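The methods section describes the discrete structure representation at length, but only in general terms. An entry of this sort, consisting of the sequence and the corresponding backbone structure tokens, reads as follows.
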Amino acid sequence: MVRTVGIKDVARAAGVSVGTVSNVINRPEVVTEETKERVQAVIRQLGYVRSESARQLRAGHSRLVALLVLDMANPFFVELARGAESAARAAGLGVMVCNSGQSVSEEDTYLSLFAEQRVRGVLVTPADSTGRSLDVLRRQNIPFVLVDRVAGEAEGCSVSVDDTVGGALAGRHLIGAGHRTIAYISGPPHLQQIQDRRAGLLQALADNGLPPEALLEIPAERLDVAAGRDAGARLLGLARRPTAVLCANDLLALGVLQVVYAAGIAVPRDLAIVGYDDIEFAAAAVVPLTSVRQP
């Protein structure tokens, strides 16, 4: 079994103290150029890799930022992860990306893991609308930011769009195109984004003198293409079929589009479909989707 090279081995081979090796790694500006080059050469020669767990034990926190999203299969969250990674890299940090699968229990598990690992901070798109799952971070004084959800004053910081306004924008677009009955294909009802987009659509109906009954909600258990196909099949089975559909995200909309296209229904002539998020795939569909863009 090959023995792991330690910092003492580097110090011995370079003829310096352990403290000097530590300074070369962590504070190179305090070491002379000649000593730094000699120590770095030994590090390369011996293949020494710093023990992050030991460094974390001394510092009390890691060099990782955690990102917990609802669904990594959704291109919206892939772009979010890329942005987080870019910002973290510029700060000399790494990103641990995890997927809650829209499950509150999975979210609890991951947030507890982040607290145990003493991550530097957490970016989270919460599945738990009550915010109670974040208590473990508060107890450990780990900073966190809610992403894609508005935080209340007691909850802390957030980066989000106004999904009520987004739902209203989609509703006004469809009503302006002459539609008077609109289906809303939603997602898990405990997600605040789903509630807000529905509220905005209802507001658009009311502003245009249409009753709440003009909105027909078709719930979806998940926010993916398969759930969209299932919702689309239920939509086609309705006795009174709406002439327009707002989907809670683009993946649902793509699933609905697949079903109605296979059924020979012309989009948007016979059925208008609007998505939400404006992911790249939306424009590449057989019939390019109209979508509410998130910045």
In short: The beta strands are 64-69, 94-99, 121-124, 144-147, 157-159, 182-185, 215-218, 244-247, 272-277, 290-293. The chain has a mean pLDDT of 88.
